[in-house]
Amino acid sequence: MLLRGVALLAACFVSGQILGETLGRLLGIQANVGGVGFAMLFLILSQNELEKRGLFHLEMGEGVHFWSKMYIPIIVAMSSVQNVRVAFSNGLLALLAGIIPVIACLALMPLLSKLAPKD
């Protein structure tokens, strides 16, 4: 089960990187655009889906949590520095691609908190 958690994390990471590279090419930027973010989104969505179906076991979660404690913060930090360098070297479009999603997320937080079920 531990290996299944690591495999889930790896699959989400690879899928996110592929999507980020593809998005970068479509935008004409020679960089990965949001690959780590997409990977995190895929991991959250797949974990929630597996939990709903009763297929996400405690041991599987340990595999995900093991790597999230060590690996994901390092990758996020590395890619944030890389994306800032690319944004400044590629101009306004890449900079806006980073700023607009942050503003949109901040604007949607009150709406999402109202939609969340109360416990």
From TrEMBL:
Phosphoprotein in keyword set: no
UniProt keyword terms in alphabetical order: Membrane, Transmembrane, Transmembrane helix
Chain segments annotated as transmembrane: 26-45, 92-112
Record's GO cellular component terms: membrane
Cited NCBIfam families: malonate_madL
UniProt protein name: Malonate transporter subunit MadL
